[in-house]
Amino acid sequence: MTAVATAEPAIRVRGLEKSYKELQVLRGVDFEVAPGSIFALLGSNGAGKTTVVKILATLLRGDAGNCSVSGFDVVAQPDEVRELISLTGQFAAVDEILTGRENLVLIARLRHQADPEAIADDLLTRFSLTEAGTRRVATYSGGMRRRLDIAMSLIGDPGVVFLDEPTTGLDPQARLEVWQTVKTLAGQGVTVLLTTQYLDEAEQLADRIAILHQGQIIANGTLAELKRLLPPTTVEYVEKQPSLEEVFLAIIGDTPAADASAASTDKEPS
Questions:
Q1: Quick check: is 103 in a domain?
Q2: One domain, residues 28 and 67
Q3: Could you tell me if 163 and 264 lie in one domain?
Q4: Same domain as 254, residue 203
Q5: One domain for residues 63 and 168
Q6: Backbone angles phi, psi at 22, to 5 degrees
Q7: 133-178 per-position pLDDT tens digit
Q8: Exposure string for 155-165, b = 16+ CB within 10 A, e = fewer
Q9: Could you report the per-residue pLDDT of 223-264, keeping only the tens digit for each?
Q10: Which of 51, 145, 204, 245 has its CA 20 to 30 A from that of 180?
Q11: Domains in the chain: how many in total?
Q12: Same structural domain, 172 and 267
């Protein structure tokens, strides 16, 4: 996770409401995101996560409340907001016929960037795709496609990136690749708002986590703060076993083999 200094919020949401006919999706959502941090909006399918992102990205208009990105109101100043942000949806928006490098060059040209080829080469290096850059995207794994998709979204150096469920449908290895990419972005000072339904994803990545349930934020804090909401427990015996993800990665040889032996510790009751 990233170290975040106190500063004016990069994203501010106040009293946000949104309905689709009779269905009220958002019921007064409030949260702030610090610059250069990773903020996870955690909730189940249908909780309203994507609706929040679409409103912040100026693709949808809220019914009530106000939202701002880097001080710019998303309704009154949409052009300024769009200059600052990038949005990556749930499915990689890449052209499979083109190579990875050609995808990047194309987007750089469409965004009227100087020296699109140099931009493409730099992003391929940053996202560990240099060797795959000359291959057609149709040959890429899910994780590689997602990394390329995120790389394309960074053309123009946006200060705020919205990632809407970026690891949906990916295998464990690809998820880890995307997680590392997200951490790298925040380490470079980019503000990341991440929506997810995966608890482990929010736990691994986020500086702060907001839980969206039935259209409202019901909890918001760091992982440590959220854990303190639970009553204290007394642990008398702990048996540590590797997670299924650790076992999977160890078997396929992509990480150092996890210690599969159970480690037990006796502890005097408190």
A1: no
A2: yes
A3: no
A4: no
A5: yes
A6: -90, -10
A7: 999 999 998 888 888 988 898 898 899 999 999 888 788 888 888 8
A8: beebbbbbbbb
A9: 888 888 777 766 666 677 777 677 667 765 665 444 444 444
A10: 51
A11: 2
A12: no
Q: Which two tokens stand for residue 173?
A: 């290895």
Domain of residue 195, CATH code: 3.40.50.300
Flag the least confident range among 3-7, 58-62, 235-239: 3-7
Structural domain span for residue 261: 235-270
**Residues pairing with 265 in the sheet:** 238
Q: How far from chain centre, in Å, is Cα 216?
A: 20
Burial of 192 (0-12, 13-18, 19+ CB in 10 A): buried
* DSSP state string for the chain: -------S-SEEEEEEEEEETTEEEEEEEEEEE-TT-EEEEE--TTSSHHHHHHHHTTSS--SEEEEEETTEETTT-HHHHHHHEEEE-SS----SSSBHHHHHHHHHHHTT-S-HHHHHHHHHHHTT-TTTTTSBGGG--HHHHHHHHHHHHTTT--SEEEEESTTTT--HHHHHHHHHHHHHHHHTT-EEEEEES-HHHHHHH-SEEEEEETTEEEEEE-HHHHHTTSPP---SEEEE---HHHHHHHHHTSSPPP--S-EEEE----
| 22: in domain | yes
In a domain, 46, yes or no: yes
**Is 116 part of any domain?**
no
Residue 179 shares a structural domain with residue 250: no
Cα-Cα-Cα-Cα dihedral sign, residues 72, 74, 77, 82:
positive
Higher pLDDT among residues 236 and 51, named by residue: 51
Roughly what angle, to the nearest 10 degrees, separates helices 142-153 and 116-126? Answer: 130
Name the packing angle between helices 142-153 and 100-110 (round to 10°): 20
- 68 with 163, same domain: the answer is yes
Residue 24: beta bridge partners? 19
